Amino acid sequence: MPPARKLVRPFSSHPSGSLETGGDSGPASGCFALPGIHYPLHVRILIAPDKFAGTMSAGEAADAVAAGWLRARPGDTAATLPLADGGPGFTEVLARAKPKAQLRTVDTVDPLGRPIKADYLLDGDTAYIESAAACGLHLLAPEERDPVRTTTYGVGLLIAHAVESGARRVVIGLGGSSTNDAGAGMLTALGCVFRDIAGEPVPYGGGGLISVHGVEGQPRTRGVIFTAATDVDSPLLGPHGATRVFGPQKGADPRAVEALERAVAHFARTLEDTLGLHGAAENPGAGAAGGMGFALFLLGGSRESGARLTCDAVGLDAEIAAADLVITGEGSFDAQSLRGKLAAEVAAGAAAHGKPCLVLAGRSDLDAHPGLAGVYSVTGLLGSAEEAMARPVEGLTSLAEKVAKEWHA
To answer: What domains can be seen in the chain, in order of their start residue?
Structure first.
């Protein structure tokens, strides 16, 4: 068997429509079998996954799938197109799609206030900021995760730098955060001061919000237009809000969840009463990134699908049209994944072009779905979530190889 090679650029980037293959590209001698569909043996595979949270970036996942698939079927063509939905990988994906944009590196702080450097993308007068670059859960060790203390202050520093660099529109990818401060830290970095009843500044973090009695100052944003890029449609408060749904994932125990819910509710009422902007907490997306969506709505921002934004930027539709088979994936695949998230965008695009779509995930609650040609998981292959987490790249590569062999007729 010749060594597997992967195509690292999308199909549509090839001049004259020529395509590189993993091996011999002579006349097809068989069929690639999908339910009710027959393709030549040598097929074009588009691999367009999201990140596998906690184990692999979208790019690493795409490479693992390509390596496994071409190991089994070296004659196929595999194009990798890593995607993001506003969380980790958002800036990286857009930077690949916008080669003329400037990647700016900025001094900022992490969720616990420690100095770090983070990037954002400046494309003309539009800045793209990945909030997780400064407040992401991945920046903290497991024992450090505590949304009572973590802050979005570092995100505010990134925004301030973009504003002072001439941005007129700031698109902020929301996802993968470690915070539950309703964007208070971000607003503080932009010029607001939140004081308690004694006139003292309140501490950073979601826990301090319960002490907010008033706000001083105005955010220094020079009239920029804000867009929250997120596929989370949760309101700020309630059973489907930021704290109750996402707080436990960020390290909050049941007692902390209740305390944070009260603190965030108090903070939201105080700000809406002070600013005369009522209703922002109920907006879909207000609960994204621990309530950062709420703060962006107070700044006059709007919400846009992060998955749709990145898919449009990378030209996903054209890449699907050029492929015979589409593969997507993410760390955890369940019913929610097909309700507006990135996997849904890819699957819908494939369906629109009449192309079959497979899902390769770290773990999956679904064995099948009517809109998909197949759903497979690393956990199912290796036998346990522990094994899948311990060997993510090896596991996903082996899964792709196994699927490729099974789909070969």
So the answer is: 11-85+307-406 (3.40.50.10350), 90-304 (3.90.1510.10)
Cα 296 from chain centre: 18
With beta carbons less than 8 A apart as the criterion, state whether 12 and 318 touch.
Answer: yes
Assigned token pair, 390: 């311990």
For 353, the 3-state DSSP assignment is coil
> What pLDDT is attached to residue 370?
77
Distance CA 93, CA 130 (A): 11
For position 339, what pLDDT does the model report? 64
In the chain, count of helices (H) and strands (E)? 14, 17
- β-partners of residue 126 are 123, 169
* Residues in the chain, pLDDT under 70: 1-41, 336, 338-340, 368, 408-409
Centre a 10 Å sphere on the Cβ of residue 240 and count the other Cβ atoms it contains: 11
What H or E segment, with its residue span, contains residue 388?
A: helix 385-390
What distance in Å separates the CA atoms of residue 91 and residue 128, rounded to the nearest whole number? 7
CB atoms within 10 A of CB 153: 26
Q: What is the pLDDT of residue 41?
A: 66
Q: What is the pLDDT of residue 297?
A: 97
- Cβ pair 334, 364 in contact under 8 A: yes
Around Cβ 200, how many Cβ atoms within 10 Å? 10
Q: Residue 243's pLDDT is what?
A: 97
Nearest to 241 by CA among 285, 175, 181: 285
Look up residue 234 and give its two tokens: 């949760």
Burial class for 383, CB neighbours closer than 10 Å (0-12, 13-18, 19+): exposed
Q: How many CA atoms lie within 13 A of 369 on its CB side?
A: 24
DSSP string across 56-119: B-HHHHHHHHHHHHHHH-TTSEEEE----SSSTTHHHHHHHH-TTSEEEEEEEE-TTS-EEEEE
Closest CA relative to residue 231, chosen from 337, 331, 139, 305: 305
SS3 content of the chain, % helix, strand, coil (to 5): 40, 20, 40
Q: Rounded to whole angstroms, what are the CA distances from 93 to 19, 123, 133?
A: 23, 13, 14
Per-position DSSP letters for 306-346, written without gaps between them = HHHHHHHHHTHHHHHHH-SEEEE--SEE-GGGGSSSHHHHH
